[in-house]
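TA notes, week 10

Several of you asked for a full example with nothing omitted. So below is the full record: structure tokens for the whole chain, then the designed sequence directly under it. When grading your own attempts, check the secondary structure regions first.
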């Protein structure tokens, strides 16, 4: 069925929002994974963020091939600004977010839309796995249902990994309302965006299928975030931690403080392994400052002892660093901030 013939207006439209920046190597494959969906009543919004390669030309060609594809261009302002433009331009009842170097399973949008429409969910999402692994449909799709009262537990603990990134999330547009991505955040902007929606009491459903395929390469946001020891890499965690503390939610605030400490410690380990003296010093100084935080002092004795053992072990014993790196490589996709 061609794009001209596939508008089934008996179903709610989905707007697929794809920010594009210097994505000439991957954007066509990404869009083709959307065009291959069993669900067809959609629009695909390609938000070109001032690309300097051939991305814009490729996007224009795809627009001529299928009327469901729209190209919106602007100056380079970052991924948050591009996604915000997509939200403003979207006409669908549901918004689905996809990164330009990723892909999705051909039945994903149909499953998400059917579940959202049947039970009036505000957000539906699946699990993800690293490309090029593709999972076939085996048996009936299993869903986990969350009430409004479950939203914070899902975000902070139960589905932390899945809800730390926007890729693969389908959200009801009127539930998003005036909420937008923070343009001042370089990393973790999607986690903070979802956090503020969760605080509104978001009704969610989780599809236990790894049907979102992310691509990790030297130019990807995920790769850059994991390899950066700059302060921006921690800002999103601090926003959530401090917000929970201000709300009087000490349990959640302490959980995020623990994650912040662990992330600083991990970045310190990476810098030490790379013999990056400058960033090693930055992380060591940041860790010293973090120990003065009231929330750090509230962490359990066991957590603090473990931290100190690992911190000094990584400082003085290369064997400890190697063992930790092995553990990190084995479970490096715990969450994406």
């Amino acid at each position: 069925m061609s794009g001209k013939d596939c508008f089934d207006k008996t179903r709610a439209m989905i707007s697929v929002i794809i920010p594009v920046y210097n994505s000439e190597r991957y954007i066509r494959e990404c869009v083709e994974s959307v065009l291959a969906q069993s669900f067809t009543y959609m629009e695909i919004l390609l938000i070109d963020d001032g690309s300097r390669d051939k991305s814009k030309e490729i996007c224009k060609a795809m627009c001529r091939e299928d009327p469901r594809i729209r190209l919106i261009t602007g100056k380079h302002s970052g991924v948050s600004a591009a996604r915000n433009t997509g939200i403003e331009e979207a006409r669908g009842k549901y918004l689905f977010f996809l990164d330009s170097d990723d892909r999705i399973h051909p039945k994903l949008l149909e499953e998400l839309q059917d579940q959202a429409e049947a039970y009036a969910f505000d957000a539906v999402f699946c699990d993800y796995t690293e490309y090029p692994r593709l999972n076939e449909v085996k048996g009936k799709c299993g869903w986990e249902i969350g009430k409004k009262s479950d939203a914070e537990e899902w975000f902070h603990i139960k589905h932390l990994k899945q809800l730390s990134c926007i890729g693969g999330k389908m959200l009801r547009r009127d539930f998003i309302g005036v909420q937008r991505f923070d343009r001042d955040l370089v990393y973790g902007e999607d986690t903070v965006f979802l956090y503020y929606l969760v605080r509104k009491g978001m009704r969610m459903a989780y599809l236990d299928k790894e049907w979102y395929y992310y691509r990790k390469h030297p130019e990807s946001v995920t790769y850059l975030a994991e390899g950066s020891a700059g302060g921006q890499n921690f800002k999103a965690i601090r926003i959530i931690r401090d917000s929970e503390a201000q709300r009087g939610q000490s349990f959640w605030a302490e959980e995020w403080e623990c994650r912040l400490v662990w992330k600083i410690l991990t970045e310190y380990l990476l810098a030490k392994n790379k013999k990056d003296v400058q960033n090693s010093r930055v992380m060591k100084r940041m860790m010293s400052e973090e120990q003065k935080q009231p929330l750090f002092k509230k962490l359990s004795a066991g957590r603090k002892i473990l931290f100190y053992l690992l911190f000094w072990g990584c400082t003085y014993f290369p064997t400890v660093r190697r063992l930790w790196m092995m553990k990190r490589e084995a479970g490096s996709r715990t969450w994406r901030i």
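Confidence is low (pLDDT under 50) at residues 222-230, 332-337. Use that as a sanity check on your answer.
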